[in-house]
Write a structure and sequence with these properties.
9 helices, 5 strands, Rossmann fold, five-stranded parallel β-sheet
Length: about 250
C-alpha cells in the first residue's frame, strides 16, 4: 500500500479515532492521564464532527462548487469527452438520502448526455481494473453502449489506477488523435483535483461534472446539526479529496 493510500485510510473518521483511542489507552497505562483524556476527547470530537451533515455541506459543497454543473444543452461543442472511472458515494443523487436506483446518476450518464446532445463525437473512458478483473473503462463502455452510444465512438484507456494516471494516459490518447479541446467528466467533488491534474500536463479541459450530490435534501426530518450515519459514511470521499489535493500539490501533480 502506498503512503498516500495509507494516509487516506488512516484519516477516515473511524480509523483515525480507533488509532487515537489506542494511543490514549497506551498513555493511560503509562500514567499520562491528561494526555489520555485529551486524545480520547479528540477522537470523539473527530467522529462527531464528520457525523454532522453541516460539515459535509460546508467542506464537500465547497469542492463541488468550484466547477458548477451545466446542462449539456448549454455547453459548447468539443472534440471529445474524457470520462474518469469511479463512483463517488455510490453515484446516489444526494448524500443525505437513501440510495434510490431510479435517481442514481453516474459519470457515464453525464458522458452519454453530452454525446447524445451532439457535443462531441468521441468518448474516452479512463480506468484500470482495480481488482484485476474487468477494467473500469470496459465497464463504462458497456454502460455507454446500453445508452445507445456506438462502439466506434468509444476509446478505452485501461491502465490508469489514479487520477494522475488518468491524466497521463488520457493525454497520450488525446495527442495521438490530435484532440486539444475536450470535456472532462467526473463527479463534482472530484473535479478540482482532476482538472488540476490535466492542466498540469498542459491540457485545457472543459469541466463537465455530474450533478452535485452534497445538497440539502427535501426530507423534512433532515437537520444539518443532528448527527447522521450517512454523513459519517460519506465523509470518506470528502476527506480523500482534500488529502488528494494536498498530496498532488506537494508532489507537483496539480
Amino acid at each position: 500500500m502506498s503512503f498516500s493510500a495509507l494516509m487516506a485510510q488512516l484519516i477516515l473518521p473511524w480509523n483515525l479515532a480507533a488509532a487515537v483511542l489506542l494511543l490514549a489507552l497506551l498513555a493511560g497505562l503509562l500514567r499520562r492521564r491528561t494526555w489520555a483524556l485529551w486524545m480520547a476527547g479528540g477522537a470523539a470530537a473527530w467522529i462527531l464532527l464528520w457525523s454532522l451533515p453541516i460539515t459535509s455541506l460546508w467542506a464537500g459543497a465547497w469542492l463541488e462548487q468550484q466547477y458548477p454543473w451545466i446542462h449539456p444543452a448549454d455547453t459548447p461543442p468539443r472534440q471529445a469527452i474524457v470520462v474518469l472511472g469511479g463512483h463517488t458515494a455510490n453515484s446516489r443523487s444526494n448524500w443525505f438520502e437513501p440510495i434510490d436506483a431510479h435517481k442514481v446518476h453516474t459519470r457515464t450518464d453525464t458522458a452519454a448526455e453530452l454525446y447524445l446532445a451532439g457535443k462531441a463525437p468521441i468518448i474516452i473512458a479512463s480506468g484500470a481494473a482495480l481488482d484485476g478483473g474487468i477494467s473500469e473503462a470496459q465497464m463504462m463502455a458497456s454502460a455507454l453502449e446500453q445508452r445507445s452510444i456506438p462502439v466506434q465512438a468509444l476509446i478505452l484507456e485501461n491502465h490508469s489506477l489514479t487520477t494522475r494516471q488518468n491524466a497521463l494516459y488520457s493525454a497520450e490518447l488525446l495527442r495521438q488523435s490530435g484532440i486539444d479541446s475536450f470535456f472532462l467528466v467526473t463527479s463534482a467533488l472530484h473535479m478540482p483535483r482532476a482538472i488540476a491534474s490535466f492542466r498540469k500536463l498542459g491540457l485545457d479541459p472543459t469541466a463537465a461534472p455530474s450533478p452535485p450530490q452534497i445538497t440539502v435534501p427535501g426530507e423534512r426530518s433532515f437537520h444539518p446539526w443532528l448527527p447522521d450515519w450517512r454523513s459519517l459514511q460519506a465523509s470518506r470521499s470528502i476527506i480523500k479529496e482534500y488529502l488528494g489535493l494536498l498530496v498532488y500539490w506537494l508532489r507537483g501533480w496539480a
